[in-house]
Design brief:
26% helix, alpha/beta, 6-stranded mixed beta sheet, 5-stranded mixed beta sheet, 2 domains, D-Maltodextrin-Binding Protein, domain 2
Length: 210
Amino acid sequence: MFIGVPKNGSFQQEAIKTYENTGLDLFGLDTNSRTYNQEVKDAEVYLLRPQDVPWAFFNGEIDSGVTGYDLLIEYTLGEDVEADTPQYEVLMDYLLGEQSKQETSVYEELGFGDVEIVFATGDRDILREDAVSVATSYPNIAEEYLSNKFEDYDLVEAEGSVEVFPQFDSIDGVVEVVDSGTTIDENSLEVIDTLFESEAVLLGDLDDEL
């Protein structure tokens, strides 16, 4: 069995616990090693960036992996998704929203890593404008959101310290992940809209693999 575990960060230990709680024996996994592909008793483990786990899963490189729901959606929105595929199931689940949410075998919510994806700005009146310029590390999610809110928009892709971008005259706001909200507050931004809530998810049906 091939599994994807986040190679660092807060998700890593929780992901390992999740797999061990299913009965997988991962004894011997060295999370401090620079060897990112390791064989342990019950699995071959790939230590991956969380944002790379969806690609590895949907391309058949791993049987299961732990990532964030936000990263799963960002990946899926960037793909040419065909009907009757696991990606299509994920996409429809997201686009239909909570009221139409269906049971899915593609992923399972794990109850940790809770965050929100938000639209934040220093100008509450921005929603009255026809055009907006937004910085984000989630270009696919931001594009899907902004296309339903504004006649015209410009996206600036950024990684890290995204909340500082509205300090530039050319940037109106951000579509970004929020944990405690402290960074948003300290950069004089206000959350105008919460796109969706996110948490860690387990990709794959382990019952089929064990």
